[in-house]
What does this fold into?
Amino acid sequence: MNSTKATARRAGALYFLFLIVGLVDMYGFPRFIVPGDATATARNIIAAELTYRVGILTDFVSLLLFIFLVVSLYNLLKSVHKWHAMIMVLLVSVGVSIGLASLLNKIAPLILLSGADYLAVFTKPQLDALALGFLSLNSNGNTIAAAFWGLWLFPFGILVIKSGFFPRILGILLMVAGFGLLTMSVTSIVLPAYEHVVSRAMMPLGLGEFPIIFWLLIKGAEVPQLADCRLPN
It folds into this structure.
C-alpha cells in the first residue's frame, strides 16, 4: 500500500510539473505569429530569437514529461486493467510522436530566417512566407496531437473509476475533459470556421483534468482495505 501511495504521489508530482510547464508554454511566451502577415511574423521571431528558442525547448520538455507521466500512471494502474492501461500509454505515445514531428516545423523558421548563403536564391518575402507556412503546419500538427490529448483521458478515467483508489467522480471528470479536448480538436480539423465558438464552449470542460492532479499530489492513492476474512475460532 505504501508503494502504491508513493507511486501515486510521484505521478502527481510529474502531472503537476507537466501542468506548470504547459501553462508557461501557453501563456508565458509572446505570440510570434501575426495571422496573414509573414513579414511581421518573421520580424517577431528575429527580434526575440532566444525567447523563441526557449519556447521550442519548453515544448520538448513538456512532451518528455508527458512520457514519464504516463509511464508512472501505467505502473500505478496496470493492476486495475492492463489492457486499458496499455491503451492509455499507446494514445499518449502517438500524441507525443505527432507533437515531436510537429516541433520540427517550429524549428524550420529559424533555418529559413538565418540568412545563410545558400538561401540567397530565395527573396526575403519568399522566406518569410515559407516561415509562416511552417508555423501553420506546426499549429495544425498540434491540433491533431490535441485529439490524442483528449483520447487518452478516456482509458485513464475508466481506470480511475475501476481502481477504487480515488473517488469515482475524478474519473468521470477526466472523461468529460477528454470529450471537451477531442471536440475542440475535431472541430478545428473539420469545421475550422466554428473553432473559436466551440473552443469557448468546451474550454471549461478541460478543467475536469485538474482535480486528479491535486488528488494524486496531495493524497496519493487510497488502496481499498480487504474485508477481514478470518474464520471464527
